[in-house]
Amino acid sequence: MAYIMVDIESDGPIPGDYSMISFGAVLVDQELNKTFYGKLRPVSDRFIPEALVVSGHSREETLAFEDPKIVMENFAKWIREVCKDQPVFISDNNGFDWMFVCWYFHHFTGKNPFGFSSQNLGSLYKGLLQDTFKNFKHLRKTKHTHHPVDDAKGNAEALLTMKNEYGLKIKL
Length: 172
Prior knowledge:
Blueprint: E1 2-10, E2 20-27, E3 35-39, H1 49-55, H2 59-63, H3 68-82, E4 87-91, H4 94-109, E5 118-120, H5 121-129, H6 148-166
Parallel strand pairs: 1-4, 4-5
Antiparallel strand pairs: 1-2, 2-3
């Protein structure tokens, strides 16, 4: 299995009605040097200004971003290039990140290279410690900036710490 840590930024709560503005992905290995960054033109006229501001981009900027079909095709190609076997989608908030990435893959390419499942980093940490009140975020080394590559990398660092220091049994 090849774990791909993903983080997305959007201009609203759901795909289709709103848009994924950008996303970052990191192949989880000891180097964390295989990354992907996509900035996508909106798919809808709707957006929530407060949600968009988190991404650090204005609406005008996002309208000049790349065609989502091209970005998703390039992401699928990158996944094929960096993964020797089945890619596994993992994120800090997979309920949110997954629904956007899955929708965009199916909508623009007709299939999702991750399949039909995703993993949640926070839940994994809670299970590892057997405590639903624990939070993994202190394990990040890279500052959480809302740039999706930074955030994905910080989350990947946390997963590596779970493996290397907490004894998580995971094949990376």
